Amino acid sequence: MPRVTQAHLDARRQQIIDAARARFATHGFARTSMSDLVEASGLSTGAIYRYFKGKDQIVAAICEQGSQALPAELTAASVHDFLQHIRTMAREEDHARLVAQIYAEAAVSPPLAALLRQQLDDLRNAVAALLPDHKPAEAGRIAEAFVAVCEGYSQQLAVRGDLDPAPFTAALVAIIES
């Protein structure tokens, strides 16, 4: 019997993650069973359990694949483009709803909360690094506020639907320039 390639294994794992991402965004974690993920992925129960012990591991895998599309510099134009990227992902991939579900799950899952805290720390550090003209403590405060507004924008997209990023851009530029 031929061995399965690593590329095949990686593709099956990604197939599960993609199906879970879509299902979690539209139905939430609590209303998604492993049977739902079997159906959504088109794989067998055994195939899913080969890669993940349960939903918690799938959620963690989704989080670990999260990308930060931070601009290389913090200008009004680049901040607008960054928020526009968040908006596009919310419209095209239901990303904002997925993030809202992840935050809700993290509130009751200490391991997921730890993962999110680390990702938020990394994001704040990346933003602070884009503020070389500020003292480290001030850059940290600005980064904290910057991330909070961006996360708030994402959460509002999840609940309110499509939102113009202009007022959020103005707020972020004011924070950066303060």
Descriptive account of the structure:
The chain is mainly alpha-helical. The chain has two domains: 6-63, Arc Repressor Mutant, subunit A; 66-177. The protein is 75% helix and 0% strand. It has nine helices and no strands. The chain has helices at residues 6-27, 34-41, 45-51, 55-64, 76-93, 95-106, 110-129, 136-160, 166-177. Helix 1 (6-27) crosses helix 2 (34-41), helix 1 (6-27) packs across helix 4 (55-64) and helix 5 (76-93) runs antiparallel to helix 9. The longest helix is centred in the C-terminal third of the chain and has 25 residues, at 136-160. The model has no long low-confidence stretch (mean pLDDT 93).
Provide the residue-averaged pLDDT: 93
Poorly predicted runs: none
Number of strands: 0
Number of self-contained structural domains: 2
Strand residue content: under 5%
State the helix count. Answer: 9
Main beta-sheet annotation: none
Helix content: over 70%
